[in-house]
Specification:
alpha+beta, DNA polymerase, domain 1, 3 domains
Amino acid sequence: MTHFALVDGNSFYCNCERVFRPDLAGRPLVVLSNNDGCIVSRSREASALGLPMAAPYHQLRALLRRHRVAVFSSNYALYGDMSRRMMQVIGEFAVEQEIYSIDECFLRLPDHIDRRAHGLDIRRSVWRRVGLPCAVGIAPSKTLAKLANRLAKQERAHRGVFDWSQLDAASAAQTLRRIAPGEIWGIGRGLSEQLQRHGIEHALALRESDPTWLRRRFGVVTERIAHELAGTPSLDVEHIMPDKQQILSSRSFARLTDDRDTLCASIAHHATLAAEKLRAQHCVAAIVGVTLRTNPHRTDLPQYRNYGCTALPQPCDDTLALTGAALAAFDSIYQPGYAYQKAGVLLLEIRPTRNTQYDLFAPPPDPRRAALMRTLDSINRRHGRGTLRVGAELLSDEWKMRQEHLSPCYTTRWDQLPRAD
């Protein structure tokens, strides 16, 4: 019988910071969002203090100081590289690996193995070779593996590994009865409310609902989730997280700016990020949009917001072409004399590369540029995002986000490698 394992890094951002700061062991720790806005990751010790996720940092600053909580700005270069290392180790334990997020992946486990012992081996290897704690949930379906992973984290007696098959029928039903619809993988808030309005108040009720009625009323994915809860594999990650139909890269500035070069550098940066995401899902875009706005809460300043877009001659995933189109769209909406707070790039009319029909009368895609983009992505994955950038990003760095508590990029910058004195 097929079994899946979901391997998930525990408090991933926080523990990435601890790998290079052993002095923080046992101390409460939180990681903040972009511009040091709110808490996006917290250690077990920070959770025990009652610090809520998504709480604004400025409201908790005094409380964090009082409890000696270590505070870090998001260091995405570090987290991305640690994720790559962790996934490489985990991938050695199965023929098939499906990476789901920066700290989660599914494995299809080999038949005829001791699954619990296999899960413990995964945990030990990730800890020994990467320095990160993780949990392993094992089950006949991916949805149950997600639930098993949660159980692995909740009870210390499980030692970070839980096999759903250890539960007998009565215990499995009792466990599912304690799980609300919104806690099930693939069910969002809106769908959860709809299910509860129809009397489906827990996972057991969803599992026992009529599949034909579920498909007709809520769609095929909900029907498949019900099959998954019964232990029948029916879902792939793309059912839960389909390719994006639009890609947005946007961020508020650390401080208001009216400098044109600063805004252009920001637009070029966001176009680069959006292009990377586009290539990662093997798609191309036909339209590039740009958003620009001032701070709507600063009523003492003149207000302006606008959106402009540029259609590409041919749909593409080329960073240089997308950046050029984004800067052209920016030129069409930029107005001097305003203190801008935020800019962003939006890719629209996204379609799979393999299904794209190109214009007969426009220049065909240049295979040399495709090779260049592959090289660009390869170098940035290996040496850290931003190792190779378009020149427009270097016009200014005044637009970059606030990161007052940023740790070094221990693994992707030669000048920030940890030193043993």
